[in-house]
Amino acid sequence: MNLMVPILLFANQLHSAEGFAVTKFFSLPTAGGTRLHATQAETEAERLLRKARELREASQREEASLHANLIKKKEEKDAATDLIISQLFPVSGVDELVNRLRAKHLALETCVSIVERLHEREMVARGLEHVEPSLGEQVTFKRVAQSDEAELAKIEGIVHDFISAAEVLDQELIDQKQSEGGKMTHAEIVHYGGGNIAGILKDKMNELSREHDDQFKQRLQSFYDAANRKKHKDDIDGNSWRDDGVWKK
To answer: Could you give the 3-state DSSP secondary structure of residue 151?
Structure first.
């Protein structure tokens, strides 16, 4: 009986010690586990970066495609408008232009497009700075300022002849309606300006001229501001560059 007591006490102590050892063993971090956790974290970060890169590239492709489509549509519209312009001009005078316009019976929207296109072509031919797109793998834009004397000789001032001819046709429509004792139809108002195509075209020309003047003034102001800032900084004494008060626009 006395022999069993020490044995039981020893067994109990051994069990407690093993339990402690096992507990301590599983609670110790291993180098392999740390590396595995780090590798998993790095893999997740790489996956997120790849996903962000793919989304950015997809967005860039979509934007480039949108630009390309818009540029293509503008080129197609310009080509169609230029074809009509080539059928109207050159002319020997406003009377001949009136006859050609009368035969074509152009809608208001087409007349506005002609005015916009003639104004654009004249500004480009004069060598005024403008932006031109370039289609490639990516759509790029560049500033261009190069005159074209041959083009300018062809189109300079003809937009005003076009508006003058439209005035004649407007008056013809008004006189016709008055002689018939009728009113302008919905189609005549929507599609043919209701006898006021020339007035609408004049407003469009004034709008285009204001836009060009505003852009020119903004460029001049930006050049002035840039020169002013450079001059102010050039005038600063070399020993005073640390003073916060001198770096003012």
So the answer is: helix
Tell me, what amino acid is at 81? T
Q: Which residues contact 87 (CB under 8 A, 6 or more apart)?
A: 100, 104
Distance CA 107, CA 112 (A): 9
Helices (H), 3-130: 4-27, 31-88, 94-104, 108-125
- Give burial (CB, 10 Å; 0-12/13-18/19+) of 148: middle
Q: Give CA–CA dist 216/148, Å, rounded.
A: 20
Note whether 66 and 133 are within 8 A (CB): no
Report yes or no: 172 and 193 within 8 Å, Cβ to Cβ: no
Q: Find tokens 């139809």 and name the residue.
A: 185
Q: Which residue has the higher pLDDT, 158 or 211?
A: 158
Q: What is the pTM of this model?
A: 0.65
pLDDT of residue 19: 46
Directed axis angle between helix 108-125 and helix 158-180, to 10°?
Answer: 160
Contact 154, 90 (CB under 8 A): yes
Cα of 232 vs its chain's centroid, Å: 34
